[in-house]
Design a protein that fits this description.
about 325 residues; alpha/beta; Elongation Factor Tu (Ef-tu), domain 3; Rossmann fold; Ubiquitin-like (UB roll); seven-stranded antiparallel beta sheet; about 30% strand; globular
Length: about 325
C-alpha cells in the first residue's frame, strides 16, 4: 500500500471537531483527488482510520480534514486528536473514492449531517468548478455544532449553502427532507442527484424523501461512517487457501476472528465493513454480504467478500488468503 508522509498545518479546534490541513513533507504537490474521496490515516497507536477529504479537489498543495472526537471511539479519533499538532508528521494513504459524483450536468442536492458535511464540502467545490447547479444543506443539532460554518462562509459557493440548526430561539429552520427534495426537483431544469452523509436516521429520512418525490433509487447516494453488521448466523467452515488453514466460524464469530484463532491474521481497519481493507477473493462457496463497501453489482458476482463482517451461505467458503 502506497503511503505519503505529510505534516499537520493550521489545526483549529471547534468543540469536539478539529479542522486541519496536511501538506507533503517533501514540499511537493499531493496526488489529485475527486470529490467524495477519503484517505487512510495511519495513527501513532498502530491503528488506521478513514477520513473524507473536505477541501478543494483543485488544490494539490494540501488536503483538508475535519475529524470529530467520537465519544464512542475505539481509539481512532482519540489518537488522531492527540496527534494533530502543528508540524506533526503523519503517514497517509493515497486518496480513494467510493462516493463519487455522478458524471454529467445534473442538479445536485448535498446533505451533510454533523461531521457528515466533510465529503459534501469537496463535492460543492467540484460542482462549483464545473459550473453545475447544486445546493448544500448543513444539518446540525445545535448552533454551536456548526464547526464548518466559518469555512463554508468563506467559499465561493457560500450562497448555495443552507443551514439547518435546532437553536433555542428557533430562528434557523429545521431540516425537512421531504420539502427539500420536492422543492429541489421542482426547481431543477436537469434530473436531481441526492448525496448524503451523516447519522443513520438522517440518511434513512433522506432516502425515504427521494422515493416519495418519485426519483429513481439510482438518484440516491450515501456514505456511511461505519456499518452496523450483524455477526450472528449459522456456523460454517472457512478455508484460507494460500495458508492451507481450515476452521469453523462460530455463530457469533467473525471470519477474521475465526482465522486469527487458527493462526491466520487478516489485516483490518474499520472492522465494520466500510473500508474494504480485508477484502478477499472467493474461490469456492457463496458469501453472505453484510458490508457497505461492495456495490450491488460486485455483490451479485459473489467473487469477493469483506471478511470482517460478512458470512457464508454455503457450508464451506474458500478464500484466497
Amino acid at each position: 500500500m502506497t503511503t505519503l508522509s505529510v505534516r499537520v498545518r493550521n489545526p483549529v479546534w471547534h468543540g469536539g471537531i478539529v479542522l486541519f490541513s496536511l501538506e507533503a513533507a517533501n514540499g511537493q504537490a499531493l496526488p489529485p483527488f475527486q470529490a467524495g474521496a477519503h484517505i487512510d490515516v495511519h495513527l501513532p497507536n498502530g491503528m488506521m482510520r478513514q477520513y473524507s477529504l473536505c477541501g478543494d479537489p483543485a488544490d494539490t498543495a494540501s488536503y483538508r480534514l475535519g475529524v470529530l472526537l467520537d465519544p464512542a471511539s475505539r481509539g481512532g479519533s482519540i489518537a488522531l486528536h492527540e496527534a494533530v499538532r502543528e508540524g506533526e508528521l503523519l503517514q497517509i494513504g493515497v486518496p480513494r473514492n467510493l462516493f463519487p459524483l455522478e458524471p454529467g450536468a445534473q442538479h445536485a442536492v448535498l446533505i451533510g449531517g454533523g461531521i457528515g458535511i466533510t465529503p459534501m464540502v469537496a463535492m460543492a467545490y467540484e460542482l462549483h468548478d464545473r459550473g453545475e447547479t447544486f445546493e448544500l444543506h448543513y444539518v446540525v443539532r445545535a448552533g454551536n455544532d456548526a464547526a464548518f460554518r466559518a469555512l463554508l462562509d468563506a467559499t465561493p459557493f457560500a450562497g448555495a449553502v443552507r443551514y439547518h440548526v435546532r437553536d433555542p430561539e428557533g430562528t434557523t429552520p429545521r431540516f425537512d427532507p421531504q420539502a427539500t427534495i420536492r422543492q429541489a426537483r421542482a426547481r431543477a431544469a436537469q434530473p436531481c442527484q441526492v448525496y448524503t452523509c451523516g447519522p443513520v436516521a438522517l440518511m434513512q429520512a433522506v432516502e425515504r424523501a427521494v422515493a416519495e418525490a418519485g426519483l429513481a433509487p439510482s438518484c440516491f447516494h450515501q456514505e456511511k461512517f461505519s456499518g452496523d453488521p450483524v455477526t450472528g448466523g449459522d456456523t460454517f467452515e472457512i478455508m484460507a487457501a494460500r495458508a492451507g488453514v481450515r476452521t469453523t466460524v462460530g455463530a457469533d464469530e467473525t471470519i477474521v476472528a475465526a482465522l486469527a484463532r487458527a493462526g491466520v491474521k487478516i489485516k483490518t481497519s474499520c472492522e465494520n465493513g466500510v473500508c474494504g481493507t480485508c477484502l478477499a477473493d472467493v474461490l469456492e462457496g457463496v458469501p453472505e454480504h453484510r458490508d457497505e463497501y461492495l456495490t450491488e453489482e460486485e455483490r451479485a458476482e459473489n467473487d469477493q467478500i469483506v471478511l470482517c463482517c460478512s458470512r457464508s451461505r454455503s457450508p464451506l467458503l474458500v478464500v484466497d488468503v
